[in-house]
Amino acid sequence: MKIMYFPDTDTALIEFSDGAVEETKEVSEDIYLDLDKMGNLVSMTVEHAKEKANISEVSFLQMEKVVA
After folding, report:
1. Is residue 68 part of a domain?
2. Rg, Å, the chain Cα set
């Protein structure tokens, strides 16, 4: 996964895979999902990212598998 932020347009692009985009779906006025030909998520674009996605603070936490 890659997160790219473009400050000149306040846009965040989150890439989940490097697959070819077949279709883009508008979720809201500022959020777009790019899907491959199988309908899998390739990337997500967030316009006005500072306001909509709190892009000024990004963290990643991988949860460990709990074994019972």
Report:
1. no
2. 14
pLDDT along the chain (68 residues), means of 10: 91 94 96 97 95 76 79
- How many domains does one find in the chain? 1
Place of tokens 């692009």: 13
Domain of 44, in residue numbers: 2-53
Q: For residue 12, what pLDDT is reported?
A: 93
Question: Using CA atoms, how far apart are residues 28 and 20, in angstroms rounded to an integer?
Answer: 22
Please tell me the total number of residues recorded for the chain in this structure: 68
Contact of 17 with 28, CB cutoff 8 Å? no
If you ran DSSP here, which 8-state letter would residue 32 be given? E
pTM of this structure: 0.80
